[in-house]
Amino acid sequence: MGVEVVVEGLTKSFGKQTIWRDVTLTLPPGEVSVMLGPSGTGKSVFLKSLVGLLKPEQGKIVINGVDLVRCSEHKLYEIRKLFGVLFQDGALFGSMNLFDNVAFPLREHTRKTEAEVRRIVLEKMEMVGLVGAEKKLPGEISGGMRKRAGLARALVLDPEIILCDEPDSGLDPVRTAYLSQLLIDLNAQIDATILIVTHNITVARTVPDNLGMLFRRELVMFGPREVLLTSDEPVVEQFLNGRRIGPIGMSEEKDQATMAAELAHREAGHADGPPDEDVRGVVPQLEPTPGLPPRGAVRRRKDRVMSILHTLPPEAQQGIIASLTPEERSHYRVMADAGDRTGPITPSPWPRQGGVL
């Protein structure tokens, strides 16, 4: 299973400009997480900091007991072997065909024979649906294929942590849907810890187990998808609904006077463009392709959510309970009116057969 990534009090600046400060979160092992935020909030900087490409000024990044911020170069090199990284453009070598691109980390960092390299490369290319494209150059294929080739290369060293920097960038909605399904299928097969940086609302609402939001140089929230999808935090609600009304402006955050004027304008019944429809709620999450094993991450996350259900606002409790299947309600011993609970829910044992979340 993927490893846990613990981030404590992380602060990153470039010169006098603070990108974000005091970021604290834990990426649960074997789960898919997404980091959201308006453009320019430092999402990609956060991802590069996690893998050690950028060095934060303060805080810790602890993986397997090693703090990447303060460890030696040798230790950092060893921990980096746990990572696979998918960059925005795939970061493929233009002069190499896809086979050689995917094989590059194996030839560079291992002593495997060419027969072993070929077996592993073809296995990963099959995993991402690129069998038969081994001899093509990056310039001869579509953006979606380049993304999948980049993902295959990120997988060849069998990483326990996969970082994806805006994997949907430049892709049409259909290709984005295929890539989203691919990431869920990969998690089902290898149970890796995955972090996706994205602006895509559909990806954010349907793919991850956990959601985070960077805004105003801080981590606004991070937690299970059910908690953020039912949150009334203004910036989270605005972003996940893709609305103009809220703290996020075109360039910088809005001041209170601007927000008050917008609210008064809206309450007066005036419309500027399409109506702002609130779609807050726990939408169905993508499931693995039929035939693949169930994702253990889903069960672990739901156990975590139900243990803190009593701490959430009543509307959030009701929304989360409404998203449960009858079998899940029985497992967690909750009823439709369980929003009145005053303590954590203790689940009953999961059945050995059936009942897979």
TrEMBL record:
Annotated organism of origin: Saccharothrix carnea
Residue ranges, annotated region (Disordered): 338-357
Signal peptide: none
Entry keyword annotation includes ATP-binding: yes
Gene3D superfamilies xref list: P-loop containing nucleotide triphosphate hydrolases
Pfam families: ABC_tran (PF00005)
Protein name: Phospholipid/cholesterol/gamma-HCH transport system ATP-binding protein
Gene Ontology MF, one: ATP hydrolysis activity
Organism lineage string: Bacteria, Bacillati, Actinomycetota, Actinomycetes, Pseudonocardiales
